Structures are given as C-alpha cells and as structure tokens.
Amino acid sequence: MSTDTSHFSIEFFPPRTPAGEEKLDIVHAELSKLGPEFFSVTYGAGGSTRERTLRAVLDLRAAGYAAAPHISCIGSSRDDIRDILRGYRENGIRHLVALRGDLPSGTATAGAFRYAVDLIEFVRRTHGDAWRIEVAAYPEYHPQAKSSQDDLASFKRKVEAGADSAITQYFYNSDAYFRLVDEAQALGLRLPIVPGILPITNSAQLMRFSDGCGAEIPRWIRLRLNSLGDDGAAIRAFGLDVVTALCQRLLAGGAPGLHFYTMNQSAATLEICRRLALS
C-alpha cells in the first residue's frame, strides 16, 4: 500500500468561543505530529466567519504550521474579496481553498460571483500566480448539479480557470472517487484530486451532514449504524474500521493523499493515520 502523504492535509472550522479556541490549540498541536502538508480553515456562509477564519489561520501560522483559508464568494462583492485577499497577502498567506459557498439564511442575492469559477478567475486576473488554489470536487456529484455531465463540466471550468489541485467532498464508496479521477483524466485534467475523508464518530451527526450535502451513506453502513443505536463506543469502533479500509483502498489505488475533515476533533484522525502507518 502506498502511503504518499504529499497531499495529506487536515481541516478545521474556526472556533466560536474562547474555550473552543483553547481546544483547537490542543487539537492542532496533536494533529501536527502527523506532519500534514497544511491545515485548512473553513469559512461560514456569506462570510459569516470571516474574522474568525482569519484569526484561526494566523494562529496556525504563528504556531509554525502551513495554513490555507477557505474563501467563498457567494454573497460577496468584488471589494469584499479584494479586502480578504489583501488581508491574507499582508500576513504571508499564499494558499486558498476557493469555493462558491452558501448564501446566509434570509439573503436573496448571490453578489458579484455566482460560481466558484468566477472567484478563481477573479483571483488569477488580479493576482496572477500569487496563490496556490484548491477547489472542490464531488465524486457523487454536487447536490445542485443538473446532471453528472454538468457537474464534471463545472469541475473542468474551475481547473481551466486556474485551480492547482482539488479536494473532494467526503464519500464512503471508493468506486465513486476512482470514477471521478478517470473522467477528469479523460478530459485532460491532470491536477491532483485528493479524497476528502470524514471519520465516523457520531451516527446522528453523519446522517444530518450527509442529508444536507448529498453525500451517500451506503446502505450497509447506514443499517449497521442504525443497529448500534446510541452505543457511542461501538459506533466509533465501527467507524474506524470502515474509514481505515476506505483510506487503504484509496491509497492503494493511487490517490495522491488524504484530506481529513476533523470537526475539530483529533482522536479518530490520529487513530486512522496510526493504522495507515502515516504517523
């Protein structure tokens, strides 16, 4: 099994409270022992966590870690995006995860940018190659895509606009990932497509996330989780086995690395990486 970690990365969300900030300090110190290429930090709908995202990224930088903020364009003006980019450049950040994002509740207008490709084109037009840009990819297709062909065409446009690499939505069916890679390569897209990995630690949370973002939970996994009820320890043990096996298949099949959605927790990611001999 290959354990190439050249694109091994870890994602956090910006904490909301001082207690959350203290916890995240502990979590990223623990996960830094794995030697990730970078930590990414998410960005709330319509820029709702803009300042907290910046603070979390700068805290990571100050602690000596490479950090890549998410930047979403929906609901933002060009001046908003210029200000955000200026703030990151002034602080030495040269790595972005560029996303469309979601409109905040109660907001009707998309702003100056309708799609992630518009944001990528704007960044490249105004800053050239100053940024390394990650984009999103969807092995099971974006939930708002009209068809699989439209979703792949959207991904192609983002790559052609200047994306350097891609991180996928999480999934539990490795065939979906490998099909995406094959289809991208058939279109001449040669950038790294890094699989996104969500450890299974909480059954209700997983169901809620997946129903919201369109990620499929295979029937056998859903049934097994249902059978475990509220047995947290059994759910975590089952989740570790499932996700470790998934990662093994991905790496053995040539995936260029892994991107862990940690939910600001460290235990499951640490254990999966230990089993994969990545720690």
Description:
The protein has one domain: TIM Barrel (Alpha-Beta Barrel), CATH 3.20.20. Helix content is 47%, strand content 14%. It is built from ten helices and eight strands. It has helices spanning 18-32, 50-62, 78-90, 116-127, 148-161, 174-186, 203-213, 219-228, 232-252, 267-275; strands at 9-12, 38-41, 67-72, 95-99, 132-137, 165-170, 193-197, 259-261. Strand 5 (132-137), helix 5 and strand 6 form a beta-alpha-beta unit. Helix 4 (116-127) runs parallel beside helix 5 and helix 9 packs across helix 10. 41% of the residues are buried.
As for the number of domains, it is 1
SSE pattern: EHEHEHEHEHEHEHHHEH
Strand content: 5-15%
**Amino-to-carboxy terminus distance:** 15 Å
Number of strands: 8
Radius of gyration: 18 Å
Helix content: 40-55%
Task: Describe the structure concisely for a colleague.
The protein has ten helices and eight strands. It is α/β, with parallel strands linked by helices. Helix 2 (50-62) links the parallel strand 2 and strand 3.
